[in-house]
From TrEMBL:
The keyword Ribosomal protein applies. It holds the Pfam family Ribosomal_L17. It comes from Anaerovibrio lipolyticus. The keyword Disulfide bond does not apply. This is Large ribosomal subunit protein bL17. GO terms for biological process: translation. Part of the 50S ribosomal subunit. Contacts protein L32. GO terms for cellular component: cytosolic large ribosomal subunit. Keywords: Ribonucleoprotein, Ribosomal protein. GO terms for molecular function: structural constituent of ribosome. Belongs to the bacterial ribosomal protein bL17 family.
Amino acid sequence: MAYRKLGRNSSARKALFKSILTSFFKHERIETTEAKAKEISGLAEQLITLAKRGDLAARRQAIAQLADEDVVRKLFGEIAEQCKDRQGGYTRILKLGPRRGDAAPMVILELVK
């Protein structure tokens, strides 16, 4: 399986994903670079699918991937309820344009309601 390394070693990449995923589910919308958004999108979709399952094992798997238990409660409560009728495609990426400092392509990653 191919994935983006994002210029980080595996532990730094895992910590970055944990942090971004927690912020994403907390605010339901984040602004980030395109490469990070494409990686986070797939992980977020997997977590929402876990939340839709709703059992204890799924909750424990989600807690392992997110930094905040309040966010896990929100994911299994509000977000899973919003997405219960959807078969996938829970996230949307909207392109913004280049970042001013280094011209990195910026996007908004948001939940589809």
